């Protein structure tokens, strides 16, 4: 009986990883108008699933100093967005499969960048640094330059 | 410069001023934003004599100090040519600010206030004055 469970687990896992190679990684797209509008003006609205909730709360607490820019919002809008992001974070109860995005992030570490997480670095470790500084891409944070449907929560192999 | 040249120059300038102000007058929402800014400017300085596209252009192109080091100028993101698209630091396209290319510019008061608030703080390290905002809008309304 145990063996059967193990076997089917293996088959299931193989099946999943087979799917993954074709389909890339998908997360539920953001369905919150304020987050899409206010966090999507300077870059795509990043998927909340890719950082722990403590990261979103810290980031939302200092929008006046946001990666070298001022991204401030009215307090009410700011609170609304912080609540949404925290509720859909990697470690939020409602998020399925979020743990992989924060694997290797220490319990007391609060990464403010998805691109600083061990998961992201691992997935992109074969990409030369010069790719990211290419004027057409400009930044690691320009996900959509390589993942054309990143704004729909889809991180597929680039075409 | 002799006198007739000077007069020719002045009439040319006022002509170009007229054409710069006209497109702005075409949109009531933008007019209302400008009227509010003019009121504010008058309150701050009773000698306020109207907005200037020339001042707006200089402000747009200038390298400022006091703000964040990565964004010394409005042109850091909005491109040197306001009729062309710009780009954020994360590589996202910004549609042109020139009203001729993008007629909905400066027509939504909340958006205008929000972005002046953010971008003036990023570039200058302070709020923009009403005169700076009005000059900026008048300049881009004629572009």
Please provide a written account of the structure.
The complex is a heterodimer of chains A (159) and B (143). Chain A has 159 residues and is an all-alpha fold. Chain A is built from seven helices and two strands. Chain A has helices spanning 2-23, 33-38, 53-60, 75-87, 118-123, 129-133, 143-146, and strands spanning 25-26, 154-155. Chain A has a two-stranded antiparallel sheet with strand order 1-2. In chain A, helix 3 (53-60) packs antiparallel against helix 4. Chain A is globular. The model of chain A is unreliable at 1-21 (pLDDT under 50). With 143 residues, chain B is mainly α. Chain B has one domain: Orthogonal Bundle (Cytochrome Bc1 Complex, Chain D, domain 2). Chain B has six helices and two strands. Chain B has helices spanning 3-25, 28-44, 53-61, 75-78, 109-124, 130-141; strands at 86-87, 93-94. In chain B, a hairpin with a 5-residue loop joins strand 1 (86-87) and strand 2. Chain B starts with a helix and ends with a helix. The A-B interface holds A 41-44, 64, 67-73, 137-139, 141-142, 145 and B 68-71, 87-92, 114, 117-119, 121-122.
